[in-house]
Each structure stands twice: as structure tokens, then as C-alpha cells.
Predict the structure.
Amino acid sequence: MHRRSVEDPEGFWGEIGRELPWIEPFTEVLDWSEAPVAKWFTGGKLNASAICLDQHLALRGEKKAIIWEGEPGDVREFTYRELHAEVGKFAAALKARGLKKGDRVAIYMPMIPELTVAVLACARVGAPHSVIFGGFSAQAIRDRVEDGDCSVVITADGGWRRGKVLPLKQEVDAALEGYEGVHSVVCVRRGENEVAWTEGRDCWYHELMDAVEEPAAPEPMDSEDVLFLLYTSGSTGKPKGIVHTTAGYMAGAYLSTRYVFDLREDDVYWCTADVGWVTGHSYIVYGPLANGATVVMYEGAPTTPHPGRFWELCEKHGVTIFYTAPTAIRTFMRLGDEHIAEHDLSKLRLLGTVGEPINPEAWIWYHKLIGGERCPIVDTWWQTETGGIMISPLPGVQVTKPGSATRPFFGVDAGVVDEQGQPVEDGKGGYLVIKKPWPGMLRGIWGDEERFKETYWSKFPGLYFPGDGAVRDEDGCFWILGRVDDVLNISGHRLSTMEVESALVSHPSVAEAAVVGMPDEVTGEAICAFVTPRKEIEDPDALEKELIIHVANEIGKLARPKEIRFTDALPKTRSGKIMRRLLRDVAKGAEIAGDTTTLEDYTVLAKLRGDEA
Ligand code: WT7
């Protein structure tokens, strides 16, 4: 199958494409004439919510689609029939509020079933959704709502996290202050916390639903109509709104879920990601539901109210497939094995990981303690931009190697090249590239075609460059080495050094800031910030605390520096570029390696090193 998929990708994907329920069939599999903007399955019409719901009614109407558990332990379940009804109703409610095909909707919600309902209802109406992770702050919401020109925001009063209700609606209110572009804020009741209310703009989800008479039918969408925007960090500038369209994305999510997770009819599948990230889009919502799977969804923190919470959920709901991130695995390793032994994990048959390279030690622990040495592990490499899994073992087919994502998925032509774009020998490190278009690939950056070309297609003309380094070994297995640009990977979440620096510099006490990643046992990478204050600081500890809170307010808690070091000056080149490479060594506490001849002022480095000792 794999050979066919790379030798005859159009034949291969044409067959897969035809497995989707079309409203009107497509006429051409791939149009690459406007490269690097691909068009897949052109001429066809379909609807992503119909792929996930309507097509299953006949055969799987009474099958569970979602088994949801709240952090406090409340459980709600939806069959495919019930989820279909809820989505049809909410789509009608949104239309009644004036939402039309093509309008953008921002979604800022806790991990509750209504989040999946909201995503699918937008797809049903043909209104691209832009899900904003529930941990982002008001400013980050505002930036995304404005950039995407969203006219509707869907949120909740609050959601449970670590034993407390986080007030989400309050964050949305702050984000929209003085902003006129949003005509409706739909609020789901979950946290039961008090909320402020803007008459005319704000409406309760349950009240809108009660008023619906007829559920909405799926809007026939063009294969290349936008399904969603999802913001992610790049090495420069503001976050990029990654654009995904309907048919190609769905074909990729559908096929990869089926094969990488070896999905079978009676599986209970749990991906622990948040729908606010691409993993949740492709592997909680679209991929599993397109396959008619039973999906477990959990609202809260992995260790609330006790360190064995995840394993309790696996046992209670009979989870057979479990997909999580290395940072979560490392957290559990630290918490102690006794919390696992208390739970029956014998139903598990397959494990997955995603988000960052997994260290072999964590892989082995996962294999032994969680998988009982019986479950294959799929280490899946992909990105927001790729829409779905690109490199991963197929369980039971490939021999796995701890730390390697192994081989490219169907239709993926991956390679490793040097600075000139020439293939490197197996066993040698280089830049990871993708050589052929694939259905789930991003179609652009919202509102910025130039940046799209510049970011992914200019380093190696004709090749897609994801920003990661890699080695392919003599067996053809890929080992991902991490980012080669100024993008940080904190607990599997991407942040650019520049975003955190801008947040720091916006504080009145900060003159200049440089941010680098430093290795961290649990989060993979942690943020170390070098800050030049405007004037002599009296109380560095107090300022450090203040700056950490400031960054959390500007971006969100996920961007909080773990360490802030105050310094009189930053190491720069003569042209004024901050030499982050040197700062990375300082942050690590390592010897400064590599060339320092372009450094403008050597004493700066000496001082930074002095602080070290
Ligand atoms: C970046 C993409 C894909 C969903 C979650 C993150 C890193 C992701 C792996 C893996 C090594 C990985 C890469 C990639 N990454 N999965 N299995 N092994 N690195 O999506 O936020 O778009 O981040 O995460 O560096 O470029 P994202």
C-alpha cells in the first residue's frame, strides 16, 4: 500500500477519497498547478459534519460517539444519533443568530462535549472555526479574533481545571472590550460561575437550543472551502492562522486515524489532547468521528483529584487506544509507579505519543508500565500545518524503535537534506523535508500568502520545510531532532521566542529581552529569559515574579518563563542581532561552544558566565 501511495499518489488518494460520503463527486484528485497552494479532490462537494455524523446514522446510530467525563467526575455520553441531533440543532441556532457560510467563528471553551458540538456545528454551516486554546489570555484571544475577523465567539461561563472553575467568559469579555466586530457571544453553562452580560450580544447556549424548531442540514461545501483556521507560532512575528480546507484534510484525518491507530469497531479511543490544539481537531474530533469511533473526552487536569486520574479513566471507560504526549508521560514517571498498579489497564492494546521527541527512557517506561509490554507504541510526527500524522509506525507492521517515529505514512514522501537542499546520507543529520503534496497539507496562512511561501517553501525551493531537523537511519527510520529555528516546544506546545520577548518588553521595567529554551525533565523545554532592566532594580525576586505574571497575562500561563536572569547587556553581533545560540549555552550551564568571533562585546558574555558561577 505504501509503495503504491508514493508511486501513484493520485490513484491511491482517489480511492481513499471515494470512501468519503460526497454530496457531489470530485472530478480531479490533485491540482498542483498553483504550487505551493494545492487543490485536492476538486469539483466535489461534501460536508465535514456529515462525514462525522450523518453517514453513521444507519449503521452506528446507537453506538457511543462520545464518552465524556468532567473533572469533578460527572459523566455524559452521546450516541451518534444524539450527537447528530445536537449538532444539527446548534447549527440551526447559529444560523438563527445570523451566522452564514464563510463567516468565521472563534471557539474558546473548556473540554466539554459542547466544544465538539460547536466545532461540528460550524462545519455544518460552512463557517470556518478558529479554536483558541482555553489557556490563552484575553490579549491572545483578541489578536486571533481580530486576525480571523470572527463575528461570533462560542465560549462557556467556566470550566474545571485543578479543582477550580476557570472563568472563560470573563476572559472573552476582556478580549472584546471596545471591539465591535463580534455580534454574538454564545455561552455554554458549565462552571455555574457568575458572568457579566452584554445585552444583545451575549446569549446562552441552552436558550438558543430551546428555541430551535428544525435542525440544520449540512451545507454542501466545495472540497477546497476553508474548514478551519488554527493559530500556531512561527519563529518571527505574530502567530500564524494556519488554513485547512475540507476534503483533503478530512481524507488525511480519516485515513491516518484508521491505520495509525488500527481502529476497530469496538475500540474505546482516548486522545488526551485539548481540542484547542491540532491534535484535538484531527484526533479527537474529525478523524475518529469520520471513522465512527467511540471517543473518550476528559475535561480536567491529568492529576486531579489524584495522581492516578488518567489510569482510573482508562479502567472505568475500558479504553483500548490511548494517545498522549511525552510531557504527560514524564510527569507520570515522576509521580511514582504505585498510582498505576492500582488500576486495571488490561484493555489497552495500543499507545501513541505526539508533540515532541520522546526520550527512549520515557518510551520504555510507557511500554512497560502503561502498555504492560504488550501494546505497540506509535510515535507520531506531524504539525499543525500538516493536518494529520506524517511519520509514524503502523502498529503490528513495523518494528518500533524507542525514540524514532519510524517511517512516513501513506502518500508521504519525506527526506533529509543539507543546507543546499541536497539529500544527505542515511545516518547523517540534516533538515527534514516533504517532497510531494499531501491531502491534509495547509493551504496557506490566513491573510498572508507571502509569509506562507516564505516560511515553508523558500529555504528549499520545491520542498516543504517543516522547521525540524532529522536523521534517517540505515533501516529508513526517521529520528526527529527537534526544531532548527527559534521556536520553543514547551510540553508539546509551540511558542516563538519572539512572542515571549515582546510580552516581556511590553512591561515598563524591561528595556530588552532575549528568550531561549533550556532542557527540562518534564516539559521537554522550559523558557529561560534574559532581561535587561530599564534602571537599577531594587528587588530582583519581586520583579521576576511580576514579569512571570505579566507574560501569563499577555499570552497565557503556558508561556511563563521558568527562569528570568537579569543582565546589563545581551550578547550581540556587530550588526545588533542577539546571539541566542550563546544564551542557550549559558541557560544550560554548558561551556560556550562554537564561534564567538562575531560577538561585539566579549565582556557581556563573561559577565553572563560570571553570574553562572
Ligand atoms: C512540532 C509541531 C502535531 C501535533 C502536536 C504539535 C514537534 C510533534 C513530534 C514527534 C518529535 C514532534 C515538531 C513539530 N513534534 N510531534 N512525534 N517527535 N517531534 O503540533 O504545535 O504544530 O508542533 O512539534 O517539532 O514541528 P505543533
About this structure: The mean pLDDT is 95. The longest helix spans residues 80-96. Residues 491-609 form a domain with the GMP Synthetase; Chain A, domain 3 fold (CATH 3.30.300.30).
